[in-house]
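Trying the structure run again after the queue cleared.
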Amino acid sequence: MWIDTHAHLDAAEFDADRSGVHRRARDAGVAMCVIPAVAAANFDTVRLLAHAQQDAYALGIHPLFTPQATEAHLAQLDAALHAHRQDPRLVAVGEIGLDGFVPALNTPEALAKQQLFYKAQLKLAQRHQLPVIVHVRRSADWLLKGLRDTPVVGGIAHAFNGSLQQAQAFIALGFKLGFGGALTFERALQLRRLATELPLSAIVLETDAPDIAPHWLYTTAEQRAAGQPQGRNEPAELPRIAQVLADLRGLPLDALAVATSANARIALPRLQ
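Done. Tokens:
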């Protein structure tokens, strides 16, 4: 059985057939999905959805949502973590982190606000003794500095695409590294090399549904301009994504399922 450690199943892209997405995931052998929040406005949504689908959830404020976020939202997160502290389906603080890719988020003012929310949420994770799910996009070194300054009980570096040295630094801090659809592209040489060279004990699998589509769902900008829609990623794609990793590492698919699911439970102990 598989664990999808990162799937935004509350996204509007799933409104038309959310129950079908859930059924296909279970039929494909995906026994559990972790649904991370991105803003205070969807804290209740992800919690209720996780309970309805017998999945898990995380609460946090995504770096892309920090421009609209306020101190009141941090207080709301603290209150939600406290109110649901006994909920076994609440497995992490997330999705939090830093984004060094989006230009609008990398002005001095916007970056300072990203840093403020990242550090504040690390402190909340520390206070509530929860792991974190961190957004890593051109931000690994900044994230690592924050984690050294405010140690937490591990977690997952989502959609990791940094260097081997950065990967080893996350692992040393008790983190697992999330791999998904980006791995399926033959041109992703550095990412594939990383996924092959890292110890298997460091790897968890994720889809980031509905985003980060694997190559068989991806359409180019030219194809989209011509009217061909982008394929929607969903948790049922996880075993096929995993097959790519299994082939790269020369592993039986069943062995990869056992190992990555065990790794997910180590990273997010409430999944036990």
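Residues 108-128 form the longest helix (21 residues). Worth checking whether this holds up in the mutant runs.
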